[in-house]
Specification:
Layout lengths: L25 E3 L15 E2 L5 E3 L6 E2 L5 E4 L4 E8 L3 H5 L4 H5 L3 E11 L2 E12 L2 E11 L4 E9 L3 H13 L2 E3 L12 E2 L6 E7 L2 E6 L12 E6 L9 H10 L4 E14 L2 E12 L5 E10 L5 E9 L3 H13 L2 E2 L1
Antiparallel strand pairs: 1-11, 2-3, 3-11, 4-5, 5-6, 6-10, 7-8, 8-9, 9-10, 12-20, 13-14, 14-15, 15-19, 16-17, 17-18, 18-19
Length: about 325
C-alpha cells in the first residue's frame, strides 16, 4: 500500500523522494512588489521550512501549521515543501485539475523565481460553508516543490487581497536537505522497528522501510501521522473515525474488523482495524487507524498500512507506535 499523504486543504499528491546533493540555492519570486508602507511585518522565517516571507500587519506565527495566521479575519499563509519535481507538480494546476478538488481557477500567470519558472494563481474555494479566495505561488527545483498558499474569506478581499498577494510574492527560499527535520513539530512518535522517516509535509509525517517513497513493493509497510490544522471539535468520535477511514486514498472495498475506544497521553481515542484493496495494485491491505482528540479541540490521526500477509508482524508495532504519540 502506498497511499497519498494528506495535505489537508491543499491538493493531494503522491510523494516521491530524491536527495538533492547540489549546493544550497536561493530562490525569490522576481515579480514581487513592496508591501504597503507601514502595513507589513519584518521578513519572517517559517520554521520547519526553508522559506522566509513578509506577512501583512496583524499576522503571527501559526500554531497548528507551518505559516502565519490572522485570528480576526480567519486568514492564513501556509508554506509547504513537497518532495516532488516542480515541473511534475505544476502540471496538475489546471482548470480541470483544480475543479476536481472543488477549486475554481480565477487567474493563472507564469512568472519567474530568480530565473526559475514559477506559477502565481488566484483561486476560489468553498470550505466550511464559506467562500475563500487564495493566492498560491508555486516554484521549486528537480526534487522539491514549494507551495505558498494565502487563504482569506472572500468577504475580506477589499482589505486583504492586495496585501496577501504581496506577501506571497515576497517569498524567498533556501533549498535544503530537510529529511528528518522536526523543527516546530507539535508532537513526537516512536515509529515501528524498520520504518524510517521518509518525508514531512506540514505537520504530517510518513515513515517507510528504508525511508524511501514510493515503495518498490506496494505491500511494504508505511505509517502516516497527521495533525489537524484547526482546533476542530469532534462531537461523535466513532463516526468521525469511520469517516476518516473511508477517505483513505487509493484504498477500496474497506471492511472494518474491529473498533474500540481508548485513551493515550490524556487524549480520548478511537482505534479501528480494517482491511481493503489497493486500487492501483489490486493487492490486499491491512490498515490500522487511531484517532486521538485534544481536550481543547483538534485531533491526531495515525494510519499504518501493510500487505495482509504481513499483518501479524505489524499490527502490534503499529499500535505501539500510535500509542507512543505525545504532545510537546
Amino acid at each position: 500500500m502506498n497511499p497519498t499523504l494528506p495535505l489537508l486543504l491543499l491538493l493531494l499528491v503522491t510523494p516521491t523522494f530524491a536527495a538533492d546533493n547540489s549546493p544550497p540555492e536561493k530562490a525569490g519570486i522576481s515579480k514581487s512588489v513592496s508591501p504597503q508602507a507601514g502595513a507589513a511585518l519584518p521578513a519572517m522565517k517559517i520554521g520547519g521550512t526553508g522559506v522566509t516571507l513578509i506577512p501583512p500587519a496583524g499576522f503571527r506565527q501559526a500554531e497548528r501549521f507551518l505559516g502565519v495566521q490572522h485570528d480576526e479575519s480567519g486568514s492564513s499563509i501556509m508554506v509547504t515543501e513537497i518532495p516532488v519535481n516542480y515541473r511534475k507538480m505544476s502540471g496538475g494546476f489546471t482548470v480541470d485539475g483544480l475543479a476536481t478538488k472543488g477549486m475554481e481557477l480565477l487567474e493563472r500567470e507564469n512568472i519567474l523565481a530568480e530565473g526559475r519558472p514559477a506559477l502565481l494563481m488566484r483561486i476560489r474555494q468553498e470550505a466550511h460553508g464559506r467562500k475563500f479566495l487564495k493566492w498560491i505561488a508555486l516554484f521549486g527545483n528537480a526534487s522539491t516543490t514549494v507551495m505558498v498558499t494565502a487563504s482569506f474569506p472572500e468577504s475580506t478581499a477589499g482589505s486583504l487581497d492586495g496585501p496577501l498577494k504581496e506577501a506571497v510574492l515576497s517569498t524567498r527560499w533556501q533549498a535544503r536537505e530537510k529529511k528528518g527535520d522536526l523543527e516546530g513539530l507539535p508532537y513526537r512518535l516512536d515509529p515501528p522497528p524498520g520504518l524510517v522517516l521518509a518525508t514531512r509535509l506540514q505537520n504530517d509525517l510518513l515513515f517507510a522501510r528504508d525511508g524511501s517513497v514510493p515503495q518498490n513493493n506496494p505491500d511494504d509497510p508505511i505509517l502516516v501521522v497527521g495533525y489537524s490544522i484547526s482546533a476542530v471539535s469532534v462531537a461523535d468520535l466513532p463516526a468521525f473515525a469511520r469517516s476518516r477511514l473511508e477517505q483513505t486514498a487509493n484504498l477500496q472495498e474497506i471492511s472494518i474488523e474491529s473498533e474500540k475506544d481508548l485513551s493515550s497521553g490524556g487524549m480520548k481515542g478511537r482505534e479501528i482495524l480494517a482491511t481493503g484493496t489497493d486500487s492501483r495494485s489490486g493487492s490486499g491491505t491491512f490498515m490500522y487507524q487511531l484517532v486521538l482528540t485534544e481536550p481543547g479541540g483538534g485531533y491526531y490521526i495515525v494510519q499504518g498500512f501493510t500487505g495482509r500477509s504481513d499483518r501479524a508482524a505489524f499490527e502490534e508495532p503499529f499500535r505501539k507506535a500510535a500509542l507512543s504519540l505525545r504532545r510537546r
